[in-house]
Structures are given as C-alpha cells and as structure tokens.
Amino acid sequence: MAQERSPRSDQKGPFLGPLSGFGVTFQTMFKKPNTEFYPEEKVPTAPGFHGRHQLNRYPDGLEKCIGCELCAWACPADAIYVEGADNTESERYSPGERYGRVYQINYLRCIGCGLCIEACPTRALTMTDDYEMVDDNRAGLIYEKDRLLAPLEPGMEEPPHPMQPGSTDRDYYLGTVPDNTGAEPAERPDNTGAEPAERPDNTGAEGGSHP
Ligand code: SF4
Ligand code: SF4
C-alpha cells in the first residue's frame, strides 16, 4: 500500500513552515524588479532571434527567391506556401529562370524553428528580429510577399527589370553584381547585428554575406 505523503508543515513544524514561506517573500522584496514596460519600452532581442521572415533582394532590387519551394518542404509545420513562375526577358523578377510568384507564411503555424532559412539555396529567406506579429483574424497572420519582401534600399529598383548588362544569374549568386548606381556590391549584415556567416556554395567558390 502506498505511503501517504506528509503535509509540508509536518516536515518543518507548525511554526517554521509558514516562516520559511514568508522568508521567500521577504528576500524578494529587496530584489531589483524585473518589470518590462512593453510596448512603451522595447527590449532588444537576443542575437540570432527568430522573428518575422524576410525575402531578400540583390543590390539592384531583383528578388533572391527562385520559387524552388525547398523552404516549404523543409518546414515541419507546413507553414509555407510557394508558387514559382517563369521569368521572361520582358518581365524579370529574379536572376535566372524562375521566381517566387506567390509566397506565403502562415504565422499561426510557424514555430520559429528556422529550418526554412537553412534550406534556402540562395539565402533569399532570412529571419528578422521583428516579433510584433499580431492580428485579430486568422487571415491577417498569413503573410504574403507584400509584407515579407525586404524594402527597396538606395540603388535598388522595383522589379520587374532586366539583369545588369553582361551579368548572369551566377554573378548575382556570387554577389559580384553592383546596384543600379554602379557602386560596388555592399555587404549587408542580417537584422541581428551579428557578423555575417560565411557559407561556401556547392561550387567550392566563396559564399557571400548573409543574407
Ligand atoms: S521557422 Fe520553422 S515553422 Fe516557421 S516557416 Fe520556417 S521552417 Fe516553418
Ligand atoms: S525562399 Fe529560398 S527556398 Fe524558399 S522558394 Fe525562395 S529560393 Fe526557394
């Protein structure tokens, strides 16, 4: 037969039990409060925080996403939906043959694991430190390209537009293509402020910065 557990007061006695409880309260009274005044004061996220995703661009504004769906296949929560389409010479959104025509991430499903960004072959997909993804309806938490694409920076032009004269999709991938001002390709750090990680490509050539 199972032995009955004795009440806590029996272990420390009828007086010491309550006193040790008040002792914890007393000690806590002199500790510095750990109150965060969010949303008035925002605390910076930890380096490498997995927040909202971002679809990155090349320095001239073309999209890095090639619509390959590898991110969607890697996602354990089935949170990503991609539909690729063909670029044409008159309507080009990314270097190479294909681009992501439809790109959706369902933040009701996403668990922030980051497997999708590991799977992306062009480093089109990264994660930012934005954690303010709230809404009062389910559809509002399905983010599409209008909310995922990186904003245009100086020297970028909104696609569709042609690739830089004389360049190939490989030049874009290797990061040797300048922006539309003709300036040298700039190193773009990720949104964590951390140093970009070097990742070699499968050709053995040195990889560019992340994203
Ligand atoms: S972070 Fe994880 S769960 Fe979220 S979309 Fe990427 S792979 Fe899916
Ligand atoms: S984000 Fe990357 S992995 Fe996903 S479809 Fe675009 S290129 Fe492929």
From TrEMBL:
One function term, GO molecular function aspect: NADH dehydrogenase (quinone) (non-electrogenic) activity
Annotated compartments: Cell membrane
Topology in membrane: Peripheral membrane protein
EC number: 7.1.1.-
Amino acid composition bias (Basic and acidic residues), ranges on this chain: 185-201
UniProt enzyme class: translocase
UniProt keyword annotation of Nucleus present: no
Binding site for [4Fe-4S] cluster 2: 75, 110, 113, 116
Stretches assigned to coiled coil: none
Free-text cofactor note: Binds 2 [4Fe-4S] clusters per subunit.
Cofactor(s) in the UniProt record: [4Fe-4S] cluster
Functional description taken from the UniProt entry: NDH-1 shuttles electrons from NADH, via FMN and iron-sulfur (Fe-S) centers, to quinones in the respiratory chain. The immediate electron acceptor for the enzyme in this species is believed to be ubiquinone. Couples the redox reaction to proton translocation (for every two electrons transferred, four hydrogen ions are translocated across the cytoplasmic membrane), and thus conserves the redox energy in a proton gradient.
Binding partners and assembly: NDH-1 is composed of 14 different subunits. Subunits NuoA, H, J, K, L, M, N constitute the membrane sector of the complex.
Family: Belongs to the complex I 23 kDa subunit family.
Protein name: NADH-quinone oxidoreductase subunit I
Species the sequence originates in: Rhodococcus daqingensis
Name of the coding gene: nuoI
